[in-house]
Amino acid sequence: MSRPAGREPRRPTRWWRRRSLRTRLTVIAATAIAVSVFLAFQVASELMDWELQDTVEDQLRADSRVLATNAERAGPAQVQLPPYPGSGRLVRVILSDGSIRTPAGQPPLPPVSEQAGRVAQGASADLMESNDSEEGYLIYTLRAGDGAVQVARAVDDGPINRFGFGMLLIGLLCVAGGALVGRTVARTGLAPIDRLTAAAVRVAHTRDLDADIPDEGGGEIRRLIQSINDMLAALRDSRRAQRLLAEDAAHELKTPLTSLRLNVELLIRLDRRGTLDSALPAESRTRLLNDLGAQVAELGTLVAELTDLARGDVSDESTEVLDLADVVVAAVARARSRVPDIEVTFDVTSVWVSGRPAALERAVLNLIDNAGKWSPADQPVQVRLRAEGASAVLEVDDAGPGIDAADVPRVFDRFYRADGARALPGSGLGLSIVQRVVDAHGGRAAVARSARGGALLRVDLPAAAPPAPVARLTAGEDTEVR
């Protein structure tokens, strides 16, 4: 049964993946050198073989011309053939009738081939051929008089074999040297990565994000180290922000929790004594219960705002092109339902932006809630929305006392509350959430003094092109999209 597709890789692949980068580089270097030496050996062997064969052929032609000159003078049948010296070239004379003459004591040559016989009969001038017998010969046949002469040499593979053996030894030394060089280069080249790994392990074990990794090397290594240092800096900022958030949250939760605990303990102590009704008249008891409800509501609001702030920009809500006027109208409706005593007037025009609807509505609602705390009962909170150049401009102003110049730089800080706001309900997180939402949408938030003497909070967001209009279908129309 065949293995299903997508299963674990084959053994060679698994073995290769399990090797260290040093081992891979060493193997690659040694393999590259081995392949290079093998190819060089093949090319050099072929070139050497061709060169030796050309030299032998040239020598055979020269010897054949000398012998053919003698044969033409004396005749192939009478030309004198000196005794075989024991080594070197081999000669043979082919007569017109096909018979042969060889020197005394010379080893026998292979039978005359059909092509060589044709040269002796005058069909062609010469012939260079090789013999495929066990002891190979290179034979040159040249027409001489009414016959032909042949000069042959045994094919000697000794030089090629000696050359190949030498190349093999050189190749083995090159492979060993290449592996050593590859190992050294890999160790030297990967030294910054080793130090980088050690630094990362140290950071993971000690949780010390303040120690930057030294910038060394160049090119990819430097960019990698810089990226990791940037990541450590981002982690430091994130941890610092979390610590500040936890400290500020603990500080802000302490006051309402203390007041709530004291009131509850008072009710419990009076109830245990059985003096709840006598110690707290109905009017005082109602006021105390109302205070408890307000404190619980304040805690709920504070926890919700802390959760929203701690999430940062992480949100499942997708970005879409929307009409900011619809968001402002929805936020005004929510503000009126939450606090019926707040009077809100608005003047909005249609301006399209790209953003997250719920986040934008929460920001607008926080602006209205903040203005509602300060605006007198007979003065409404005014909300205006208009297009100004390439921006959507939202303004929320009140007729309250305004914001002191000393408080303006910190008005969008988390948990910051002006001295005059300490007695008012709130957590000091509303405007910081507004700032975060505006920043996430590429906008800008600012504070100024209103023409009515109060605070004017302004938000500028990048405007977007409205979506293409969709034709509305009326009754009886064809609903097919064309």
N-to-C span: 52 Å
Mean of pLDDT: 76
Count of strand segments: 12
- Quickly give the structural class: alpha+beta
Major sheet size, sense and barrel closure: 5 strands, antiparallel
Helix content: 40-55%
The ordered H/E elements are HHEEHEEEHHHHHEHEEHEEHEE
> What fraction strand?
5-15%
Using the CA coordinates, give the radius of gyration: 50 Å
Sequence of strands across the biggest β-sheet: 2-1-5-4-3
Low-pLDDT windows of residues: 419-427, 470-482
Shape descriptor: rod-shaped
- Count up the helices: 11
Kindly summarize this structure in a few lines:
By secondary structure, this protein is of the alpha+beta class.
Give an account of the 3D structure.
There is one protein chain. This protein has 482 residues and is α+β, with helices and mostly antiparallel strands. The protein contains eleven helices and twelve strands. It has a five-stranded antiparallel sheet with strand order 2-1-5-4-3, sandwiched between helices. It has a five-stranded mixed sheet with strand order 7-9-10-12-11. The protein is rod-shaped. The two termini are 52 Å apart.
Which characteristics define this entry?
482 residues; alpha+beta; five-stranded antiparallel β-sheet; five-stranded mixed β-sheet; disordered C terminus
What is the element layout, followed by pairings?
Blueprint: H1 11-18, H2 21-74, E1 90-94, E2 100-101, H3 114-120, E3 126-130, E4 137-144, E5 147-154, H4 158-189, H5 191-206, H6 220-273, H7 276-279, H8 282-311, E6 320-323, H9 324-338, E7 344-348, E8 352-355, H10 357-374, E9 381-388, E10 391-397, H11 430-440, E11 444-449, E12 455-462
Parallel strand pairs: 7-9
Antiparallel strand pairs: 1-2, 1-5, 3-4, 4-5, 6-8, 9-10, 10-12, 11-12
Helix pairs in contact: 2-4, 6-8, 9-10, 10-11
